[in-house]
Design brief:
This protein has 1245 residues and is mainly beta. The chain has nine domains: 15-25 and 57-221, no CATH class; 229-314, Immunoglobulin-like (Sandwich), CATH 2.60.40.10; 326-406, Immunoglobulin-like; 421-502, Immunoglobulins (Immunoglobulin-like, Sandwich); 513-598, Immunoglobulin-like (Sandwich), CATH 2.60.40; 607-748, no CATH class; 756-968, no CATH class; 1100-1179, Immunoglobulin-like (Sandwich); and more. 4% of the residues lie in helices and 39% in strands. Strands 1, 2, 3, 4, 5, 6, 7, 8, 9, 10, 11, 12 and 13 form a 13-stranded antiparallel β-sheet that branches. Strands 16, 17, 19, 20 and 21 form a five-stranded antiparallel β-sheet that branches. Strands 24, 25, 27, 28 and 29 form a five-stranded antiparallel β-sheet that branches. The longest helix is centred in the C-terminal third of the chain and has 15 residues, at 1228-1242. It starts with 12 loop residues before the first strand and ends with a helix.
């Protein structure tokens, strides 16, 4: 501990002290029953003010002790300033800080306290916590026992200062006693259910010692003059070269005044002037500079000490942040010069000009100008340039303008070079491709374009002035690319080169669900929006048609985005979506669900409530949900967890009700209910349920942790049905633990094994009361690159002091032939203590290193596909992380995470997911409890990120781009652009990057969010329609789940996110502990790169088309079509009735009465068998033309056809038997076909 005392030889000086000691009073508990404890503090002073309506109360009070004992009683304190610096937390403003001085009164704590033996006295009054109503502005302090400085504090930025005559008098009284001074620092009640916190630097803060608390005292003996005590800021002239005046009251007998100034960050002031009048004019300051002024007076008696410092921020707070420039124009341009202009912004002195040579990469500051014009002489004619400008006014710097593009400037009549020749592949690695070509005469540079192989949708990826280019922009190893190159010369661009195809470096295909297109029709202000899935197994050339009430709406196949706006449609319309593959449109499609109110309502049935052994009643809330195709019909079913209203966090004792898990069809039909029993505690960290097709049979299973008395949907009980292992605190710390796989269709137990890892010794996990031992996570991962595995994780904290170091275990299991089989186990007790305390309140999964196999990212620890540690960063535990291609300009995948450990190097950290290397990070010196990653601002490349510890928003490159923090719970793709929207509570919001505010797009009234302040939906995923996401919320009365879907059209053609393996497993693990939104393996955002069809396969179940009777027997020939695994380079083969295998290319007919079996199999491009499927059906076809079923083709059948003529499906009088060509309408084509049947049936034999 560093203790500064005053040197008695320093008479008539200014001195600065840091506290000799700091102690904290910590309050927790419920209204009327506060739990109070005391402690010292570390490097930071943490203050929290949590109101009762937010849960159990949390509050902290800090005591700071200073030592003035070396002052003499005849020393006069002329001025003093107490200064505190916030380093993290919410915004510090007046009203969020209250300071008091401790008086020497009976019952108060003694002034000579130390933190090791600190006990508060009567000055502390917890009466504020005796009821559930807190008065805003109140602090737990007995005001009659302290000097109240509240409302005398000043706040500037992150600095709190106290400087007043009352402070001088208080300090003088303490000098007259024993010289020990104690200040009490509190965070007053904020009311309205607020939960806010502030973290200040303490007396031992090491990151920046200038931020430690300081008490600055100016003193002298009585013979010296007193310094001025009333410094004030006079006139400020705001401009590019600002000036200001400092004034003070004149001192009798003053001969002169010495003026001192120090800039923010400087320790010692410098004398900047000597004046004879009480005013000083300073024209050497900078705009937005922060300065501290002090003045000493010189009289015949000598020179005084310096006055208390006056803080001046040369920012015009009344002006506010200026607007960004707009209305860009090119005043003139040549190959060597660009002259830009823009509208002049009122009140602006300067403009900062930023430039990039790519629209989707980082910008750099190139100049600062004082007029709304900029001439750029550092240009070449063959390049495009992208500019954005910021305004600088007295109130600050604006946000960046929209990006303005200046295209290449060629010379009229100049030479145009020939197209580059002989493109060749130099190297092709995981995240990098290098190509080369022959030099072209008169070429100044080469533009390199790339597309996903076969699509022809090219995007600029680089400009080279040599004959090669290394492409690292969002290169993904599983994608094959096509490259073409243009030569740029003095006169323009050449023709494109021949295309160079570059193969993918990964060729493994992952097993996914064979799901339908799930079309939906959602009403909007402009009509009805019909949208449907583009499947990950579709061919690139697939098109679609939309039918309303039997009539096709589009004249040509829809080959772009998979949505259609029907301006004439209503909620009474019936819509059908049909696929067209090649030249063949399927005879039947899928009927769209009409969401008349913008959502699908799924009725649910809550379990009956109950009473715990301590006589506490509880009911049930619908909590987290997941989806899977439980019955193999291609439609998702919902799996829903019911939590009792007395669910607990692991840190809280108390009994809970049982946890139930239900399965529902989308129409609300309940398929099954599982009771996890009394030996599974309820709470966010206890039950994670993974719903996935683990065994590849086309139907999803559900796997979760179970115990004695768990009961499946068929009434089968696991273990001892009467066992009750709950202790008096409601914890379950004894008894067997199991892992169970349940059949998704029936809810019946498939297999139960011992849970890995077992509980073992409680203290191994870091405490002895049952908190850390039961911190669970779960996930789904493709460890072999093809098939999914179940992941269970236990433990992620460091141990509490003296209670064990802590432990982390992660185990993987496969489901093989109905049995759970262990794949591997990672255990920190075996692997090393460096892996302890590195886990999160969630985990994420994906191919972090581009080798085709999934890794488990457990926070600051990543486990490779074989169960070994890939990397550990040592940054410790955290609450949230986000994984994906967050920065396309950085090779490979990235992760953004927030960290909890106060002593961690970083608390907001952007990481290379393959290596754990920090790309950039921010130290907040406090628990950063939440963080989010989403592209919400088109002016910055890649994903924007932000955390809960401060108000900053960062670009993917770590640049602070805003100081207004958006909501921080979930992000969702909702409207039609590629930017992501915000999901918070029960509303979807668009970030308005210009005005730095959220705009509500959806307000889901009548619904409720889950998991307390996390305010998460039951589920967010791409559940219906095109690639945009749906949000599933419970109604506030727990009688239904509502699935909201967007009504906004989009032009973006993206395969369903549920066929992106990274996204699909994220939907599965979304219910694990602290829910986080799912991210795909590719970047979706402004200037997004190519989107390829994913390398996935499904079971190749064929679709059958024909007329069927009530018994399921076909009464016509059957057309067989394969709607899956059609994307290149997959190859499908089929055979009929065990005949020869043939390559599938187009639908085919199966004819002849009797039973038939059609087999399909799918191979990858390297002839590896991926999947097989069979379909058996029966045909009992009528005689062609026999429309009335009397086994004869006669005039009676003609009457049937004529009666249905010009009728379409859905019309009164339509007869499907007369629709001989199966197009949904009976017309003259059908009549001609019947005439042919009639002639054939009645010709002479």
């Amino acid at each position: 501990m560093l203790l500064l005392t005053l040197n008695p030889a320093l008479r008539g000086e200014n001195v600065s002290l840091i506290p000799a000691d700091v102690a904290s009073v910590n309050i927790a508990g419920d209204a009327g029953a506060p739990s109070i404890s005391t402690s010292g503090v570390g490097d930071t002073i943490y203050l929290r003010s949590r109101e009762f309506s937010s849960g159990a109360v949390r509050n902290n009070v800090a005591y700071l002790q200073f030592d003035l004992s070396s002052l003499n009683n005849d020393d006069v304190i002329q001025a003093a300033t107490l200064r505190l610096n916030k380093i993290a937390g919410d915004t510090v403003v007046t009203g969020r800080v209250a300071l008091f001085g401790l008086m020497d009164l009976a019952g108060n704590v003694q002034q000579d306290w130390n933190s090791g033996s600190f006990t508060y006295g009567d000055e502390f009054d917890p009466a504020i916590f005796n009821d559930a109503v807190s008065t805003p502005g109140a602090s737990p302090i007995n005001l009659s026992n302290v000097v109240n400085f509240d409302e005398q504090e000043a706040v500037s930025g992150n600095t709190v200062t106290l400087s007043s005559d009352d402070l001088n008098d208080f300090l003088q009284s303490r000098v007259a006693d024993d010289g020990l001074v104690t200040f009490i620092l509190t965070f007053p009640s904020q009311g309205d259910g607020n939960d806010k916190s502030l973290t200040y630097a303490s007396h031992t803060y090491t990151d920046d010692t200038n931020l430690r608390p300081t008490l600055e005292v100016a003193f002298s003996d009585a013979s010296l003059p007193s310094p001025p005590s009333d410094l004030m800021l006079g006139n400020v002239s705001y401009s590019a070269n600002p000036s200001l005046t400092i004034n003070w009251g004149g001192i009798d007998g003053a001969l002169s005044y010495k003026v001192f100034r120090r800039a923010d960050g400087e320790e010692e002031p410098t004398q900047v002037g000597t004046v004879t009048s009480p005013s000083y004019f300073d024209d050497s300051v900078e705009l937005f500079g922060q300065y501290y002024y002090s003045v000493a007076v010189v009289t015949d008696a000598g020179e005084s000490v310096r006055s208390t410092e006056l803080y001046v921020d040369v920012t015009d707070s009344d002006a506010g942040r200026p607007a960004a420039p707009g209305d860009f124009t090119v005043a003139a341009s040549t190959p060597a010069q660009i002259q830009l202009g823009w509208n002049a912004v009122s009140g602006v002195y300067l403009y900062e000009v930023y430039r990039s040579v790519y629209p989707d990469r980082a910008f750099s500051l190139v100049d600062t100008v004082d007029t709304p014009h900029y001439t750029d002489d550092n240009v070449v004619g063959f390049r495009s340039y992208y500019y954005k400008v910021k305004s600088i006014g007295g109130g600050g710097i604006s946000w960046a303008s929209d990006v303005f593009e200046v295209e290449p400037r060629f010379v009229t009549g100049g030479t145009i070079p020939a197209a580059p020749q002989n493109l060749s592949l130099g190297s092709n690695t995981t995240y990098s491709t290098t190509i080369g070509w022959d030099a072209v005469a008169d070429a100044q540079a080469y533009y390199v374009y790339r597309s996903v192989s076969g699509t022809g949708d090219y995007h600029l990826v680089g400009i080279s002035e040599t004959t090669s280019l290394e492409d690292t922009y969002a290169v993904m190893p599983q994608i094959a690319y096509d490259y073409t190159v243009y030569a740029a010369g003095q006169g323009g661009f050449s023709e494109p080169s021949a295309v160079l195809g570059v193969d993918a470096t990964l060729h493994n295909y992952r097993q996914m669900e064979n799901i339908t297109r799930a079309p939906v029709a959602v009403p909007s202000e402009d009509g009805m929006l019909i949208s449907w899935r583009l499947l990950g197994t579709d061919p690139e050339n697939i098109g679609f048609s939309v039918y309303r009430d039997g009539h096709r709406l589009n004249n040509f196949p829809i080959t772009g985005a998979t949505n259609y706006l029907d301006e004439a449609g209503t909620t009474a319309s019936t819509y059908e979506v049909r696929a067209k593959i090649g030249n063949y449109e399927l005879p039947e499609g899928e009927t769209a669900r009409v969401l008349g109110q913008g959502y699908l309502s799924v009725p649910i049935e809550a379990p009956a409530g109950g009473t715990t052994p301590d006589d506490v009643d509880y009911t049930y809330n619908a909590n987290d949900a997941s989806v899977g195709d439980l019955d193999g019909d291609g439609e998702y079913e919902i799996v829903l967890k019911w939590d009792p209203t007395n669910a607990k966090d692991n840190s809280q004792s108390g009994y809970t009700g049982n946890v139930f898990i239900d399965a529902y069809e989308m129409d609300g039909t309940r398929l099954w209910r599982i009771d996890l029993g009394r030996n599974i505690r309820a709470g966010a960290h206890y039950t994670q349920f993974m719903v996935y097709d683990f065994d590849g049979d086309g139907r999803a299973e559900m796997i979760c942790k179970t115990a004695d008395a768990t009961t499946d949907a068929e009434g089968t009980v696991i273990g001892d049905p009467d066992a009750d292992y709950r202790n008096d605190g409601g914890y379950i710390l004894d008894g067997p633990e199991f892992l169970t796989a349940f059949d998704g269709m029936t809810g019946a137990i498939m297999d139960t094994i011992d849970y890995v890892p077992p509980r073992g010794n409680l203290s191994d996990w870091g405490d002895t009361y049952g908190n850390r031992v039961d911190r669970f996570n779960a996930a789904v991962a493709y460890f072999d690159g093809v098939h999914p595995s179940f992941v269970a994780a236990r433990g992620y904290y460091y141990g509490q002091s003296g209670q064990g170091i802590g432990r982390t275990v992660i185990a993987a299991h496969d489901l093989v032939d109905g049995q759970l089989v262990e794949r591997w186990v990672f255990d920190s007790q075996v692997e090393g203590d460096q892996y302890v305390g590195q886990g999160n309140h969630q985990l994420t999964v994906g191919d972090a290193d581009g080798d085709g196999y999934d890794e488990v990212m457990h926070g600051s620890l990543t486990i490779d596909q074989d169960g070994s540690a890939l990397w550990v960063s040592g940054l410790g535990h955290g609450d949230a992380m986000h994984f994906g291609d967050l920065d396309p300009s950085h090779p490979g995948m990235e992760m953004f995470a927030v960290k909890e450990e106060t002593g961690a190097e970083y608390h907001d950290v952007f990481t290379n997911a393959a290596t754990g290397e920090t790309i950039w990070g921010v130290n907040n010196a406090r628990d950063t409890g939440r963080g989010l990653a989403a592209d919400i601002d088109p002016n910055y490349a890649g994903t924007e990120v932000w955390g809960a510890a401060n108000l900053s928003v960062w670009s993917a490159q770590g640049e602070v781009i805003g100081l207004t923090r958006p909501s921080i719970n979930f992000a969702i793709w909702w409207d039609g652009d590629p930017l992501r929207e915000l999901m918070d509570g029960t509303s979807v919001r668009k970030w308005d990057w210009v005005n730095q505010q959220e705009v509500v797009l959806l307000d889901a009234t009548g619904t409720a969010s889950n998991n307390g302040t996390k305010a998460t939906p039951s589920l967010q995923a791409d559940l219906l329609g095109d690639w945009r996401e749906e949000v599933m919320l419970r109604t506030d009365d727990n009688t239904a789940l509502r699935i909201y879907s967007t009504s906004a059209p989009t032009v973006l053609r993206i395969p369903t996110l549920m066929h992106d393996p990274n996204y699909r497993v994220a939907v599965a693990w979304q219910n694990s502990a602290y829910n986080q939104p799912p991210h795909p393996s590719f970047f979706i955002g402004n200037n997004m790169p190519d989107v390829a069809m994913p390398d996935v396969f499904v079971d190749p179940r064929p679709d059958l088309y024909g007329l069927m009777d009530d018994e399921g027997v076909y009464t016509t020939d059957v057309r067989v079509a394969l709607n899956a695994n059609l994307g290149a380079p997959l190859v499908n083969e089929y055979r009929v009735d065990s005949g020869s295998w043939m390559t599938y290319s187009t639908p085919f007919m199966v004819q002849g009465n009797g039973s038939h079996t059609v087999d399909f199999r799918t191979y990858d491009g390297e002839s590896n068998l991926l999947a097989e499927a069979s379909s058996t059906f029966t045909i009992n076809a009528q005689l062609p033309g026999d429309l009335d079923g009397d086994n004869d083709v006669d005039v009676d059948d003609r009457l049937v056809l004529i009666g249905s003529l010009r009728k379409c499906e859905g019309d009164a009088g339509y007869n499907a038997a007369a629709d001989l060509d199966g197009n949904g309408c009976v017309n003259m084509v059908d009549y001609a076909k019947w005439r042919a049947y009639y002639a054939a049936a009645n010709r002479p034999r």
